[in-house]
Write a structure and sequence with these properties.
By secondary structure, the protein is mainly α. It is about 75% helix and about 0% strand. The chain is built from nine helices and no strands.
């Protein structure tokens, strides 16, 4: 049943993505609101799927790539809807909903079988560490999407192309401010995810830090985002520099999250 609801969720997210893209292209009144409602329905279905999978597996479904990408898509969807409720950032849905759909596709291409939990993962730290980390990824994905919007808008302004997409995107100041807000929430959660992971590692393997490839790249990612926030808050970095740094940080985060598991296997190579 959870698999069927998950697939239904996937098609709902596709419908919402189509709606947001139609709104971005045509600016038809009401289309964005309909797309948002469809996305909200998808989130409800997705929540049901995750809860059912938790019940069936008797542990938090946050181990395999099927589950992790599913929870990342869920977190991104929830973060986006909450963000929109407070800020109504014009056109953001057309950039975020494809990312949600992509994470769902990445989930679908991985095996969905529920397997016994490895001994090292049989801990109450699993849902704490994994959920905090993935929610931070979702918020940093939002910041990444907004930074992409910033660079597109800046390009149109520089080229004096003040029609079409320029009119559909928010001002540079609004985009820069919103990207910073996502960073200010996502980075502390990323930090907390690393801290809880270290505590869990000490309980499981007797050491807080062992320079496992995942741990090393997590530290590199953290340092990049820490440098970005430091430059923004103390030096006053804004605009293009910050947008590019956000994109670099996010690409590093993706490598840490996905690439390290496949290319640099270590103690964290459970999600397959």
């Amino acid at each position: 049943m959870d698999r069927f609801i998950f697939q239904l969720t996937f098609f709902t997210y596709i419908a919402a993505t189509a709606g947001y893209l139609v709104n971005l292209i045509t600016l038809r009144k009401g289309v964005e609101r309909i797309a948002t409602w469809i996305l909200a329905v998808g989130l409800c279905l997705h929540t049901t799927s995750i809860v059912l999978r938790w019940v069936y597996s008797h542990h938090a479904p946050l181990v395999s790539f099927y589950d992790v990408f599913s929870f990342l898509a869920w977190s991104l969807c929830a973060a986006f809807l909450l963000f929109q409720a407070g800020h109504r950032l014009k056109a953001l849905g057309a950039f975020v909903s494809p990312a949600i759909t992509l994470f769902m596709i990445l989930s679908l291409i991985h095996p969905s079988e529920i397997l016994p939990l490895p001994p090292a993962l049989q801990s109450y730290w699993l849902p704490i560490h994994a959920s905090i980390s993935i929610i931070s990824y979702a918020l940093l994905t939002l910041s990444f999407c907004i930074s992409i919007m910033y660079l597109i808008q800046e390009h149109h302004i520089k080229k004096k192309q003040l029609g079409g997409l320029f009119k559909r995107l928010p001002s540079l100041q609004v985009l820069d401010t919103m990207a910073e807000k996502c960073l200010k929430i996502g980075f502390p959660l990323l930090t907390l995810g690393i801290i809880t992971g270290s505590i869990w590692a000490e309980q499981a393997w007797g050491a807080y830090w062992s320079w496992d490839p995942k741990e090393t790249w997590s530290l590199i990612t953290w340092l990049l985002y820490a440098a970005l926030l430091h430059q923004r808050l103390t030096v006053g970095w804004r605009g293009r520099k910050s947008a590019y740094m956000t994109i670099i940080g996010y690409l590093t985060l993706l490598f840490t999250f996905i690439g390290v598991t496949y290319l640099l296997p270590g103690a964290h190579s459970y999600a397959t």
